[in-house]
Amino acid sequence: MRKLRKKIYFGAGANTVCFGSGRKEFQPKQPMPGFETYLKEAAQGSLAQIPNPEFDEGVIANFMAGRFLKQGNLPGFLPMAVPGLKGKPCTRVEGACGSGGLGLAAAVKTILSDMADSVFVAGFEVQNTLKAIYVADVLAGAGYFNGDRKQGHAFFFPGIFSDRAGAYGERYGRDLARRGMAKWFEQSILNARKNPKAQEYQNTAPDLFRLGMTPPDGRKFVPHLNLYDCSKVSDGASSLVVASEAGLARLGLDKARMVELAGFHGSEGDITEKPADPTVLENTARAVQGALQMAGIGRGDVGVLELHDCFSITGLLALESIGFARAGGGPEFVLDGHTAAQGELPTNLSGGLCGFGHPVGATGVRQMVDLVEQLTGRAPNQVQSPKDHGMMVSMGGNDKTVTALIVKRAA
Amino acid sequence: MMGEGADPGKAHKAGEAGEAGEAGEAEQGGSKPEWMERLRAVAVLGAGGKMGSGIAWVALKAMAELDAKENGVPGSGRFELVLIDADPSSFKPLRAYLRSQLIKAAEKGIGDLRLWARERADLIENGEIIESYVDGALSMVRCEGDLAGAKRVRIVFEAVFEDLELKKEIYGRLKALCGRDAYFLTNTSSIPISILDREAGLNGRILGFHFYNPPAVQKLVEMISGASTRTDLVDFGRDLCKAFGKLGVPAHDVAGFIGNGHFIRELLFALGKLRELGVGAPALAALDHATQEFLIRPMGVFQLLDYVGLDVFRLILKVMREQLDAEAAAGTVFHDGTLEALVAAGVKGGQLGSGEQKDGLFRYEKNRIAGVLDLESLASGIRYLPLSDAGVRMALEALGAPPEGHAPWGKMAKDPGREEKVAAYLARLAKTAAATGTGTPQGAGERAAGPVGFGDRAKDPQGIPLARQFLDHSRAVGATLVRTGVADSGDAVRQVLMNGFFHLYGPADWKG
Questions:
Q1: What ipTM does this complex have?
Q2: β-bridge pairing A401-409 and A259-268
Q3: Which residues of chain A approach chain B closer than 8 Å at the C-beta?
Q4: Tens of pLDDT, residues A237-259
């Protein structure tokens, strides 16, 4: 197993508010901020933390600006947001919902290759330019369009994960699965309520678990998921800095406010193939396995976790596929409170995709921003974990483009 | 838009395609139910109007769905909807309205659309399927400025002005134009079907098919058979209601039928009350408020009059007067001097094409009451008093509060337990009303021409007694409609009022 050949740090993270339905200021019929606004706001949040913002390179992660915004050539927006990137190499990465994770990995590899000491990474998505029914068309591009779109559900991805939820319920019990998903929803919203930037921050629904238990209605939506099982349509941006020790020194950043990369690994599946077992996220499992090996730790050493819960069922499947829970044991693991803020494995403390929201291209970057804040004691929903490591899983499509990163307290 | 619709070449082609389509069906041996076959060729008369455009949408939706089920997406050329209006300037907004309705319906029904279009390999994304659905459905529509456009159609929905002479003339021409098996569905809300049938010589091929406003939203259709309406047409009407997703309630052929039979009488009662209380803005506001709040209805009686439009109300009243007063022993019932004065003074009501409420007895801002007609100064022009007017405010305060268990209509209507809650509220209202005496409010009539014109804050609150009088009256009208055979049963009256007027209870549910 390959080891990291030098130390790499993440820090100076910033997230914009995750904007969309659920936020009081969201008025779908009023003009909304453009993506430039989000990018600049995130970048300014990062730059404000950096005494000497000199970067060697920039990476921008985004999924479908070409369709949502009719905008390509995204690297050109990095110098707009970060003037110091003018004249520097910039790259756009795309791996659907896993774009953010890919962006982080790209920055890490550039530094490992000695081509750069400091890389600015931004991720963003603005989706509310379209109605949900058309957003579904765009997001369907994260699956195999020629092979699967025609037969797929109108809401393509909810249909795919509904199939997974259906297969899971079939094998392990529908009621258990439903209760697990309801609990996941409850946990997500409870965490989001502590995070002023979360899309569900202002959610005041009284009985979250009961809402989560709403029986799915296949005629109105999909057969095995209700609307509470789904992350929403979101706008937002996140950014941070990836740097070597030399880079940190140049930027003037304090290690105490950074986290150090312990291991990372990517795993790609053949997008034209159906999952061998719909109850397993095999690429999630492989990516995490690789990252743990590189870090030289066991999964029990992970103190805080960031999972890619585009749907509640995805969160449960990830817990099982990684091995935190046995196969079929995900719902109980969550129902027993292990993943709650007070549990032994606090998960998605800023709300996750179900609670914080899912500005697709920003999500992976956002996960790392939140891990930095948790491990350096500055998170809005701070927990005191005795463990030093945090892990994030960034997943694109139907468990196809997956990057896992493990970080630890730097100081 | 209009040029496209009126293009004779296009119309000709569409007609041919329609025939070819039918022949094709026959060859396949697939014999479809009659209502489906008839929906291939439909006309709407008065399509540019408020009701006509709504009916056009309801028909187009059903036709587009049939076409999509048969051919993947609509626009096969086997269906045609002819929209006829004497005013060609209505066509552009009419097409825009149909397009926006189609988009909304297609977005909402995308699951079905995808299913119907499953064989169309070229239509993959929601956006592509929705666009093709909307364009295809609109290609069924042909706008025509003259009745001649209805040639060859098999169903005619007629929604022209409520005027017997006009309708007689139209049906006279239609009879000659349309095929001998065409069905005529009239949207009249008051003119007896038998008279139209007899005067136009339609041989029983006419059925009252009375949509409620707006047809796109309202579930209710009153179905009125004339004395000689053919039974196959009655059956067809029932099938059509199902195809349209409407609730068809049969009513008998007495002017006004059930809905207006109740509404017109209630409004006459309210106008009588207005005079009794002293014709002024305060009484107008108070009566309207009492009939909305205390009766838990979506609108008070006078706002509803504005909604319907004073001119439309007057036309219906005229029909009922001509049809019913002759038979009535009591002489002229369906006439109201106050209404005549209001219409003469230019008070109108009704809605703009956009659905925005026009000023009438009230002034409206964004469809909400913002001013009250100053009835006392009507002779010198139309003026509105603000809601903050002292007299209006005192009159509203004099109503007092509704009894316990009350909730505004908007809230009650959404309450899953509304049936029990409404029953409990009505019982409470009955009990309170019984305890507060005869229920005759103290009006300005007795107090000479006081500035308030309604009530007196020192006396008992007057909302409850007023509510009781309206409920008593409504119950009596409901009973009359059943006794005189207009409605089959009390339940039919209840269904019409609940589905057509959004009441939360029927007249007979009041036990006070």
A1: 0.91
A2: antiparallel
A3: 131, 133-134, 136-137, 140, 145, 149-150, 153-154, 219
A4: 999 999 999 999 999 999 999 99
